[in-house]
Design brief:
The chain has 291 residues and is α/β, with parallel strands linked by helices. Helices cover 44% and strands 15% of the residues. It folds into 2 domains: 60 residues; 179 residues, Nucleotidyltransferase, domain 5 (2-Layer Sandwich).
Length: 291
């Protein structure tokens, strides 16, 4: 007798709704029904959940027919405001009591920096190795604002901009987890990794921020300080955009998708090299046949 295996169906989540928004608009009433169906909502009330998504930075908007859409599917790169962020921390794990000790960010739109955010954060301890890397000393943080206060200000600054960082997973997740720790929601902003985009637009042997600064002759000092690293990342982002075909990448979501594509410069060069080697082998075989 065959044993019956229980088939566990994947639960419907908010991310499934967002995936659909990448393809089409959703009528508001249907959107609320989908939120009722989702298993990972914070509120039982779908109207409150909708407002929470907006508060958490998801760029939702209505059209004239009461349909909900992602602004990033409509906005061109030049129309979109990007928030380029960097943080310094006193350790890698919030669960182990580590925290942000500095946040720096710049707002970038249509090739220009239009605003900035910069703040040290009070912390009791900074490990010596982090002091060496960042040059942030405990004395510098004694009169700095507490983390909760800085996070509230940063959330207001960020709005629903596209979040960019050089190694997006660390900065985005660390800030989002910090928001949750202080009951400030979590990040729902659309996001883009400047390393991933650089790998598809800038021909370089390495893609660390320090190396790219030298490679691209970016004159920004104070490496490993949050604001200055965010500023340097903005210049890297500018270089990446110069290589973008805006006739093909017509909106921000297409830019995000492109940054995740398999066609890195390294892979294209490797494919071209293999094709050249293959052509050489074919030519050799043809020459042998002639002889």
């Amino acid at each position: 007798m065959k044993s019956r295996r229980r088939i566990i169906k994947p639960s419907f989540k908010i991310s499934n709704i967002i995936d659909r928004l990448l393809i089409e608009v959703i009528n508001y009433d249907e959107f609320l029904l989908l939120l009722e169906k989702a298993s990972d909502t914070f509120f039982n009330n779908p109207e409150l959940e909708f407002e929470l998504l907006i508060s958490n930075g998801l760029p939702l908007e209505f059209d004239d027919n009461n349909n909900v859409f992602l602004k990033t599917t409509k906005y061109s790169i030049d129309e979109q405001c990007f928030c380029i962020v960097d943080i310094e921390t006193n350790g890698s794990s919030i669960k182990k009591g580590h925290q942000i000790i500095e946040i720096g960010a710049v707002k970038y739109k249509n090739g220009e920096i239009i605003d900035k955010f910069e703040s040290l954060v009070y912390a009791k301890e900074i490990p010596s190795y982090i002091q060496e890397v960042t040059n942030i000393k405990p004395l510098m943080l004694e009169d700095a604002p507490i983390l909760e206060s800085v996070l509230k200000e940063f959330k207001l600054f960020l709005e629903d901009d596209v979040f960019i960082a050089h190694d997006i997973k660390f900065d985005y997740n660390y800030i989002s987890d910090s928001f949750e720790k202080y009951d400030l929601g979590k990040l729902e902003n659309r996001k883009l990794c400047s390393i991933d985009l650089a790998k598809r637009t800038i021909d370089s042997p390495r893609y660390g921020l320090g190396f790219l600064k030298e490679e691209l002759e970016i004159k920004v000092d104070n490496h490993h300080r949050a604001y200055y690293d965010a500023l340097a990342t903005a210049y890297v982002f500018t270089e990446s955009l110069k290589a973008i075909d805006k006739e093909k990448i017509t909106n921000v979501e297409k830019l995000i998708s492109f940054s995740k594509s398999s066609k890195t410069i390294a892979s294209i060069k490797e494919k071209k090299l293999k094709e050249e080697e293959k052509n050489k082998e074919v030519q050799k075989e043809k020459q042998k046949e002639v002889k």
